From TrEMBL:
Domain DUF8006: 1-82
Protein name per Swiss-Prot or TrEMBL: DUF8006 domain-containing protein
Keywords linked to the UniProt accession: Membrane, Transmembrane, Transmembrane helix
Organism: Salinigranum rubrum
Transmembrane annotation, as ranges: 12-32, 39-57, 63-81
Transmembrane helix keyword on record: yes
Keyword Thylakoid annotated: no
Length: 83
């Protein structure tokens, strides 16, 4: 179990968008060994929606644009995936 002070000290140095981006990248790397393009695309779509729904008071505007890109690219990845 991670002490709460460690998590708090980490989040004080970064904004919410950077923490979400780190979770997005680590989750994507964790999905790579599964070799499933559909799961990866669902991961991309989910984080696109998360970036879109994050309040703009907590993150800079460029994370909103990242969310828009992920919501557009995610379904394209899903459609091009093999069954």
């Amino acid at each position: 179990m991670v002490p709460l002070q460690l998590v708090d000290s980490f989040l004080l140095e970064y904004n919410v968008g950077q923490a979400l981006l780190l979770v997005f990248v680590l989750g994507g790397v964790g999905l790579l060994p599964l070799k499933s393009q559909k799961l990866l695309s669902l991961h991309v779509i989910t984080f696109g929606v998360v970036f879109l729904l994050t309040p703009q008071a907590l993150v800079p505007t460029h994370y909103l644009f990242l969310g828009i890109v992920l919501v557009v690219v995610g379904p394209l990845l899903y459609v091009t995936a093999r069954a």
